[in-house]
Amino acid sequence: MAITDWPQDQRPRERLIGQGAAALSDAELLAIFLRIGVRGKSAVDLGREMIRHFGSLSRLFSANLTEFSAINGLGAAKYAQLQAMLELARRALAEELQEGDLMSSPNAVRQYLRLKWNGAQHESFVVLFLDVKNRLIADAELFRGTLTQTSVYPREVVKAALAHNAAALILAHNHPSGTPEPSAADVALTQALKQALALVDVRVLDHLVVAGTKIYSFAEHGII
């Protein structure tokens, strides 16, 4: 049965308007994004199939075009719409980080990093440069590949911090496949960077390791 044949108070769009987006299931939210289903399936049915196929929203969002298009009814147009929606979410979070103290909104920082590395197949090292009020000035991916003390050059991080006139920064890198727990090399690198940046009076507030939806904070574990 098409959604237009459902009682009005059961339709996803009407429920969202009346009750708010949080009241809807994942499949119902996807149905609003999809707008229409395919022959024999409503948009909600198609949303449920997407979740079953990928196993989670995070895997759906990180799918490439070929993987996304494996489901009947999905293709390049819907893939482009989804990627545009995710990019808008990233930019909205970046605006939020630029307006307030990052240390008072750690969840926003984590959501931003999760979205930033959504679907990434490589390991990379990112620095969030902050002003004296801990507001985001800019963020930059400085290195890619397996991270060791020799592949992430402290002098390059110091140079970038000075170029942005940063008073503090947050280090972050991802583990595309694995757990968020840091390696011995991660810990050694963090200490080397902290010491190098202290020489130019730039504070390292945290180092976050992102692995899918899980994030490890050096500050929370007393390592930094």
Question: How does this structure look, described?
Answer:
- Strand 1 and strand 2 form a beta hairpin.
- With 224 residues, this protein is an alpha+beta fold.
- The chain is built from nine helices and five strands, in the order αααααααββαβαββ.
- Helix 2 crosses helix 3, helix 6 runs antiparallel to helix 7 (106-116) and helix 8 crosses helix 9 (184-198).
- The protein has helices at 12-19, 26-34, 43-54, 57-62, 65-68, 76-99, 106-116, 154-163, 184-198, and strands at 124-130, 136-144, 168-174, 203-211, 214-217.
- It is elongated.
Could you provide a short overview of the structure?
The protein has helices at 12-19, 26-34, 43-54, 57-62, 65-68, 76-99, 106-116, 154-163, 184-198, and strands at residues 124-130, 136-144, 168-174, 203-211, 214-217. It has 224 residues and is α+β, with helices and mostly antiparallel strands.
